[in-house]
Amino acid sequence: DEDRSLLDTALADEFDDEETGPAPVLAVVGRPNVGKSTLINRILGRREAVVEDVPGVTRDRVSYPAEWNGRPFTLVDTGGWDIDVRGMASRIADQAEIAVDMADAAIFVVDARTGVTSTDEHVVRMLRRAARPVVLAVNKVDDERGELQAAEFWSLGLGEPHTVSAMHGRGVADLLDTVLEVLPEVSAVDQKLEVGGPRRVALLGRPNVGKSSLLNRLVGSERVLVDNVAGTTRDPVDELVELGGRQWRFVDTAGIRKRARQASGADFYAALRTQTALERAEVAVILLEADQVISEQDVRIVKTAVEAGRAIVLAFNKWDLIDEERRHQLEGEIQRDLAHVAWAPRVNLSAKTGRHADKLVPAMERALESWDTRIPTGRLNAFLGELVAANPHPLRGGKQPRILFGTQASNRPPRFVLFTTGFLDPGYRRFIARRLRETFGFEGTPIDISMRIRE
Ligand code: GDP
Ligand code: GDP
Q1: 119 CB under 6 A from ligand 1?
Q2: Which residues belong to any copy of the EngA-type G domain (predicted)?
């Protein structure tokens, strides 16, 4: 039946995807000054040292595409993730924890010259919990004399210490060979969706809001059917189209077009399609009917998209049908039912007449830009410092939880982690979220704030 064939199409598409999948992510962690950046430059094959000799210089967490023996991977540099972390074992471990959380494997770099430190041991305890493959690199072994010293790092319990000299390149090839043995072919962490390719859009909304009409309007005659060879049984799943000077991939458009021919089971079908389309999309354009009261189903679709962490644009369709009175009503309904997505850009359009259809693409671009945003750690902590100074957390039972520092753990959508000395009230967290939006924008993207409590 219809539902079964949609599932088959969705599954077949997953397996047939011509992309090989996102490259695995390798994080390089360790105390400041052990040589992480030097090692990264070495792996990337950069000639000139871009390493700052000044300790504590704020660099930001960056990731780079890398390759070894023909295998691509993404290198994440945690050097200078923060402000002043010198001597603060737990914060260094926290940062390593976030990096490792987002990675498929890690190189843990230690310094042969200082020997095992208590901070190293702290990081190791964290790495054990993270349950990711870790390769131990003992750096600054510039010649054979250092080899013996490195033996003491067996005590960390991470297996063989691989001696390297990031500076001179010694041992780095062997280290990478070992890393490739533990690194999966395809990343299992949620960092998919490469930059630069067509951006993926899902057109969502309950039956009859005008999805097919809008798709036809946008895609028009420029339509390029992907996966659609005339006469095959396979439905076109995605449509690739150029709008506003860039390519967009409208995902699961077969689901939209098929819907137009189908009468029964519409709700079930719509919910199923919403899920499968969201899984593959970066931005969800959610259509609502301006001439109809906002329904529970509309709100549910919005909620599903927010929970999926996608960028969101609200498109109020059939604008040609409404009068002044309905406009006012609608405004009230939006305030009441869609207050939780007040940050989503709204476009009032008509798929039928084409009114304001041209505003959709800029709105999608704004939402995706917010979705991609990374706030540098230094800026984030300056913001948190000011916010906390002006509005400290209310006292609770004589105690006042403090925010030690924060970092943006990931983007797409932006997720923040705050390290605190106690539980932050939900109200205070909402206040932080509101201020984050006021300061950094984030129009069109959900943001997430979580806490890690340190005593
Ligand atoms: P990070 O803070 O862990 O990223 O460390 P850096 O890469 O900035 O390196 C810290 C210092 O150690 C710099 O002065 C580097 O030149 C030095 N260094 C890095 N690798 C080596 C190495 O293999 N041998 C020696 N002798 N010094 C190194
Ligand atoms: P879908 O089920 O979401 O794909 O909705 P369709 O695109 O099939 O549209 C449902 C009905 O609404 C059709 O009769 C369309 O002609 C009509 N429709 C779609 N967009 C508009 C619009 O902007 N204005 C008006 N007046 N009718 C529209």
Answers
A1: no
A2: 24-187, 199-372
Dihedral, 129, 414, 307, 431 alpha carbons, nearest 10:
100
State mean pLDDT over 405-414.
Answer: 87
| Residue 266 Cβ contacting ligand 2 at under 6 Å | no
> Which atom from ligand 1 is nearest to the alpha carbon of 30?
3
CB of 36 sitting under 6 A from ligand 1: yes
Q: Rounded to the nearest 5 degrees, what angle is found at the Cα of 342, between the Cα atoms of 441 and 317?
A: 115
The model's pLDDT over 294-321, given as tens digits with 9 standing for 90+, comes to 999 999 999 999 999 999 999 999 999 9
Cβ atoms < 10 Å from Cβ of 443: 18
Instruction: Give exposure, 104-136, as e/b (b: 16+ Cβ within 10 Å).
Output: bbbbbbbbbeeebeebbebbbebbeebebbbbb
Give, in order, the Cα–Cα distances in Å from 350 to each of 284, 298, 324. Answer: 18, 18, 16
Distance CA 257, CA 183 (A): 41
> Do residues 100 and 413 touch, judged by C-beta distance below 8 A?
no
Residue 247's DSSP bridge partners are 242
Ligand 2: distance of its center to the CA of 444 in Å? 25
Q: Which ligand has the nearest atom to the CA of 217?
A: 2
Does residue 256 line the site of ligand 2, with CB under 6 A? yes
ipTM of the complex model? 0.58
